[in-house]
Design a protein that fits this description.
- The protein has about 260 residues and is mainly α.
- It has one domain.
- The protein has 11 helices and no strands.
- Helix 8 (about 135-145) crosses helix 11 (about 215-255).
């Protein structure tokens, strides 16, 4: 092996091992490893639902249905397509970064703790929304999907995980990238302004997706969407999707949509 190749090969593991948590946790491979159990759990729940006709009434996450609709435009139909796309995007992103295929276990553990910590601002927003006239049971119903009343804890958990994964995939990973690219590459605005516009536009779309006709719910989801957008730009996809999923789990499964 040439000297330059030996140096490069030796340097990469060292760089990966010494990379600080705040940077390592934003890498696409770390996001994939962190979110993979949630992806598998959601797809397993989807398979169980399809195998039991009585559970078809539960429906699916609206964001996932929208992603399926995009595939159908191009004539592509199949199960788990959003999950396959999400995994593929993260893998391709990792390959393009040309980094080692290694993720430290401590990074994944700290990502879980950090994601849980980021639910606190969301509870503050939910509390403000409650003061302004929207109960947390309304917020839970809107955030969980079309309806969750009467569902078991397991199916509430399935809805919460799916919303966290596919809403963030649709609005943050795809939406922010698309709006940012249009603003910076097509209209020639500065990078920072492009990010601000991308966060604002996707926050508005996130609010419209959840509550198009209810003012205070719309305001809440616009603020939540802006929060997720800023978190995505600063801390990456894995932590953002994790925070969203953990918040929904706490509201739909632990609190069961009760007001606080």
């Amino acid at each position: 092996m040439p000297e330059s190749d030996r140096t490069s090969a030796a340097a990469r593991p060292h760089l990966d091992r010494d990379e600080p948590y705040w940077r390592a946790s934003t890498r696409p491979l770390a996001s994939l490893v962190f979110l993979l159990p949630l992806i598998v759990a959601y797809e397993a729940g989807s398979f169980i639902q399809l195998s039991d006709p009585e559970r078809h009434a539960i429906g699916s996450i609206k964001a996932e249905r929208l992603l399926h609709s995009i595939f159908e435009i191009f004539g592509v139909v199949g199960l788990a397509l959003p999950a396959i796309l999400l995994v593929t995007v993260l893998l391709v992103w990792h390959v393009l970064e040309n980094r080692p295929w290694r993720v430290r276990g401590t990074v994944i553990a700290r990502m879980a703790v950090e994601s849980l910590a980021w639910t606190l601002p969301l509870f503050v927003l939910a509390g403000l929304a409650s003061l302004l006239g929207s109960s947390t049971s309304q917020l839970a119903a809107q955030d969980g999907g079309d309806s969750f009343q009467g569902l078991s804890m397991g199916w509430r958990l399935w809805i919460a995980v799916g919303a966290g994964l596919y809403e963030e995939f649709l609005f943050r990973m795809i939406g922010v990238a698309l709006v940012h690219s249009l603003m910076v590459d097509l209209f020639g605005v500065k990078e920072r302004l492009g990010r601000v516009v991308a966060v604002g536009v996707t926050a508005g779309a996130f609010a419209w997706y959840h509550a198009p006709a209810e003012v205070w719910l719309f305001v809440y989801y616009a603020m939540a969407g802006a929060f997720f957008g800023v978190l995505y730009l600063g801390r990456g996809f894995g932590i953002t999707a994790g925070a969203h999923a953990f918040f929904d789990i706490l509201v739909l499964v632990v609190l069961k949509g009760q007001d606080f």
